[in-house]
């Protein structure tokens, strides 16, 4: 059970840290982060009711591409990508 708590804590920590950098993260990376976050929290329970704008379509498509990925795997992928982004930001 401790491993799951650690994963959840690391996931939440990564989300909080990235939230402060949101405006400096490239749009393609933001899209990946969005998809991992949605898959981690909602799994394959896709819902698309954000209207018909292009941005929402891209976000929904990115999320649907993760169909079948477990919540834990999505959290791990999110954390990995977040750590890469945070490292790049620190080195800049």
Automatic annotation (TrEMBL):
Protein name from the UniProt record: Acyl-CoA-binding protein
Gene3D superfamilies, per the entry: 1.20.80.10
Top-level taxon of origin: Bacteria
InterPro entries linked to this entry: Acyl-CoA-binding_protein, Acyl-CoA-binding_sf, FERM/acyl-CoA-bd_prot_sf
Keywords, in A-Z order: Lipid-binding
Entry-linked PANTHER family: ACYL-COA BINDING PROTEIN 1, ISOFORM A, ACYL-COA-BINDING PROTEIN, ACBP
Residue ranges of every copy of the ACB domain listed in the record: 7-91
Biological source species: Polaribacter dokdonensis DSW-5
